[in-house]
Amino acid sequence: MKLPTTPEAITPEWLTHALGWSIQSVEVEPVPAGSGFVGQAAHLRLTYDRPEEGAPTAMFAKLSSAVPEVREKLRTVGLFQTEAGFYRDLGPEIPVRVPRAYAAIYSDDTAESLLLLEEIGHMRFGDNVTGFSPKDARLVTRTLAELHAHFWNSPRLERLGWLRNVDHDVATAAPLYGAMLPRFEERFADLVPSAALSAARRLGQRVYDWMRQHATGPQTLAHGDFRPDNFAFDDQQIVIFDWQVLRRYRGTRDLAYFMTFGLPVEQRRATEHTLLELYHETLRENGVKDYRFDDLQANYRMSLGSPVFTMVIAGGMLDFSSERGKQLIRNLSERVAAAVEDHDFAA
Prior knowledge:
A hairpin with a 6-residue loop joins strand 4 (101-106) and strand 5 (113-118). This protein has 347 residues and is α+β, with helices and mostly antiparallel strands. The protein folds into two domains: 7-118, Phosphorylase Kinase, domain 1, CATH 3.30.200; 124-342, Alpha-Beta Complex (Aminoglycoside 3'-phosphotransferase, Chain: A, domain 2). It is built from twelve helices and ten strands. It has helices at 12-19, 68-75, 79-90, 134-150, 155-158, 166-188, 194-213, 252-262, 265-285, 293-303, 305-317, 323-342; strands spanning 23-30, 40-48, 58-63, 101-106, 113-118, 124-125, 220-222, 231-234, 237-240, 247-249. The chain starts with 11 loop residues before the first helix and ends in a 5-residue tail after the last helix. Helices cover 48% and strands 15% of the residues.
């Protein structure tokens, strides 16, 4: 059957065909535009013709854009292909908690995609603005290390055709950074601390070299957008979602991204070394024996360019004109400024 291209096109007949359960009706509640999704999303409420073992009464649907021209532009970035590939090929074996995928479909012909995921709206979600408690920060750090250790220098990652790496980002993301830097400066010169602007300009001078450095050393499965807004908490577990910018990369990019964006400045300063030690210890507990703590610290310092990079791209492209948007860019840029100064990232 034809893949639905809008939430409203998800019918009981299509769901029955795709999932193999006898679905009587579906109530579709689209997520409003501007809610942080590149594409479309909706909450689904399902009823069945008969009892179906393991069948949920609610799902979360995530779709690509309904506009063919937009899908074609995003094909190069690979957002939809990457996330569908993750849930299809790696989701069942991932060593950390992710939403269960009932369907993960991507069409190479049209760049259309549809994910049917576990509904996790009842869980406790992270928040980029408020950050984490020390207890949650330790849980997130340990979970990240478990994920990275599982795929540490794994040859399997090289065989996944949809999984992009440093070479791809050098060709696509680096030029985008150069284009967005002037727009970022124009928009936020009066709002962003001077240290963050200085680091952004310095990174712009060396962005190709900085990216290529991440192709050396140990490679693993890096989430790419590892921050509080993409976490939920379920009992004693962290649930990680939004896998659209997944990469084969150095794991310290995720670590620096989380520590800078996810922790208020004084909390990061007070706990940073301890969390780095916890990350390293957890890697060792999970089989990574050939990675020295000194190397981790050096890689972490270099990877502080990751939150700088995202700050510029997001600030240049996205709309932060709302009050929360202004608060978010102010908070995150202050955290970036403090981190790059503390570690002399520009040098």
